[in-house]
Design goal:
By secondary structure, this protein is of the alpha/beta class. It folds into two domains: 100 residues, Rossmann fold (3-Layer(aba) Sandwich); 79 residues, 3-Layer(aba) Sandwich (D-Maltodextrin-Binding Protein, domain 2), CATH 3.40.190. Helices cover 36% and strands 16% of the residues. The chain has a four-stranded mixed β-sheet. The chain has a three-stranded parallel β-sheet with strand order 2-1-3. Helix 6 links the parallel strand 5 and strand 6. The longest helix has 21 residues. The protein starts with a helix and ends with a helix.
Amino acid sequence: MKKRIIIGLSCMVVLLGVVLLAFGFRKDKNTSLTKVRLAEVTHSSFYSPLYVAIEKGYFKENNIDLELILTPGADKVSAAVLSGDVEIGFAGAESAIYVYKQDESDYLTLFAGLTKRDGQFIVSRKDIKDFKLEDLYNKEILVGRSTGMPALNFLNALKKNNIDTDKINVNTAVEFSALSGSFIGGVGDFVNLFDDSARE
């Protein structure tokens, strides 16, 4: 129950933030709706409240014409926001940190968290009965770029479970958006995928 309340409150904060931000953006010439472009790093069932709000017309009821744009990679989401191609981006918090550390004159502002947990799954090439994290030892796993949230969360989870990452070939050479394709193409013994990609 507590988890549902946290998720519900997070979603409300995001929706409120979108509504408040929208008042400062341009009006569409053909309607009274305010056009807001939102770049999302990936499609995920973790973002279901957003998709439901769009499909149910909640944004239009609040005079917002929300355009959702798939923009794989937090770095690309950041670039889209900073260039003005979109007004809002959904991505890991690390993107704002990287921009800040580059001493840019324009920074990203984090204003809400949509999820509390990470939606990643370890997918194996072979069926493993009673999988344990130790089954990753001496195997290659694709996790996305080393500075991205999928890789950072995965490595943190291994550390919290006392897994020696020196005994695992952690492949950070493949971009997040190419993980499933690379794995299907034969790279790696395991892959760390977001929920929707893991079902493919």
